[in-house]
Design the sequence.
């Protein structure tokens, strides 16, 4: 059924409400992650530059080329759902296309590789008995929330527009998603006493005078309140090493077995990661704690994770298969909250038992664990950041050689830089000193420390 309006064509369902349509730029794993949170009544079309994907299907959704979108569908909203946001925005703006959404503006649950409904279930449950509330922030997330709420409770909540959204974009959203109840400010909603924030800047908003008289609730990042994310078994590590120092041992090409021998000789507390086991045949040193944040590790290291000779292993919660089986009591599941940030600092967790923020590098996860454990001096070793002088995403290498392409991964320079800057900011505010004791490398965000002079 079709209904004409303003020389445009709108598709409506049998009940007469507008159907929801979205183009997703990126027929790959990241685009698929967004798909997990959209109900079947959304009409989804993937857009991709890879010729072998176009004119086919991805997860039973049509795939078209970028040129096809630009030439014939550019009036439709598109979500940039891959890690090349800046380049994609330039292409769209070069064609005077400003009606797009950015994957990085969605909550972390829309970015994680596993399929689960924890965020949806929490938000719907939280709003069950609330009447005098409104959503704050007009974006793709609040549009999806409106859909969830309407299907569960039969009404459309008020959505308060943020100040920095253009009227042109608001008008386009009204046309595309016509059932939204949009208002300009909180004063326009009678009897309002609670504002549920759908943007990432909750901490900033709660300090503004405009919102002081309302209960402000963060429903963008609910990771501290979703019980399934918490692991109370990790709580025993909180401030376990209060006031001490530790070494975070990464796997960059500068890492030497001789330096690890020194750490063992001086009984230094060490946290390491991922493929560090590849050095075990060269040294008797072993880390005290091991961290794995990459979901692909459950396949790559699956035969080693339970047997690694480490007293505490912290593994991300992104594999349902792995965590459905028995593991020893030194293996701890932690929640990895996916916050890919290309234009702002990612959050730094103050409670590792609840969640850790991804930061696009496992080293960032190790820093959050170290801070949670109470360390006041953190030394980085083997954190070469060798791609740190490039604006492009290029391959990085390790202390070992490998012919497997997945082990010579891609360094997302901007994302990782922002993560390290966030770690430094948190450390400075909480009396923690982070030093880079790596031999060489290009990481200059933290003060340098000469490894040999530390003993």
Sequence:
């Amino acid at each position: 059924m079709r209904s004409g309006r303003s020389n445009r064509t709108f598709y409506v369902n049998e009940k007469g409400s507008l159907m929801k349509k979205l183009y997703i730029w990126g027929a790959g794993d990241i685009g698929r992650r967004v798909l997990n949170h959209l109900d079947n009544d959304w009409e989804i079309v993937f857009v991709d530059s890879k010729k072998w994907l176009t004119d086919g299907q991805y997860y039973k959704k049509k795939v078209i080329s970028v040129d096809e979108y630009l030439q014939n569908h550019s009036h439709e909203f598109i979500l940039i759902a891959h890690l090349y946001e800046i380049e994609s925005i330039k292409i769209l703006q070069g064609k005077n296309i400003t009606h797009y959404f950015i994957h990085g503006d969605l909550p972390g649950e829309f970015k994680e590789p596993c399929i689960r409904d924890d965020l949806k279930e929490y938000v719907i449950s939280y709003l069950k008995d609330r009447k005098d509330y409104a959503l704050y922030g007009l974006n793709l997330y609040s549009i999806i929330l409106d859909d969830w709420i309407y299907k569960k409770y039969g009404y459309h909540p008020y959505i308060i527009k943020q100040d920095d959204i253009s009227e042109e974009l608001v008008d386009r959203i009204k046309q595309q998603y016509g059932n939204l109840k949009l208002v300009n400010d909180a004063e326009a909603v009678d009897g309002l006493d609670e504002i549920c924030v759908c943007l990432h800047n909750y901490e900033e908003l709660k300090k503004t005078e405009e919102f002081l008289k309302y209960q402000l609730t963060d429903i963008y990042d609910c990771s501290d309140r979703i019980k399934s994310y918490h692991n109370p078994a990790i709580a025993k590590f909180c401030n376990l090493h209060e006031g001490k120092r530790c070494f975070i041992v990464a796997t960059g090409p500068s890492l030497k077995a001789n330096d690890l021998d020194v750490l063992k000789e001086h009984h230094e507390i060490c946290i390491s990661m991922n493929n560090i086991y590849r050095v075990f045949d060269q040294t008797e040193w072993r880390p005290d704690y091991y961290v794995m944040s990459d979901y692909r590790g459950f396949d790559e290291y699956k035969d080693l994770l339970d047997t690694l000779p480490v007293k505490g292993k912290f593994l991300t919660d992104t594999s349902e298969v792995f965590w459905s089986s028995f593991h020893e009591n030194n293996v701890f599941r932690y929640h990895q909250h996916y916050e890919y940030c290309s234009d702002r600092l990612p959050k730094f967790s103050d409670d590792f038992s609840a969640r850790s923020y991804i930061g696009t590098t496992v080293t960032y996860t190790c820093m959050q664990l170290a801070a949670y454990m109470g360390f006041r001096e953190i030394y980085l070793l083997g954190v070469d950041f060798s791609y740190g002088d490039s604006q492009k995403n290029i391959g990085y290498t390790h202390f070992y050689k490998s012919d497997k392409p997945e082990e010579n991964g891609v360094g997302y320079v901007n994302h990782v830089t922002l993560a390290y800057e966030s770690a430094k900011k948190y450390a400075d505010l909480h009396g923690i000193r982070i030093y880079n004791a790596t031999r060489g490398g290009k990481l200059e965000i933290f003060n340098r420390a000469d490894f040999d002079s530390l003993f």
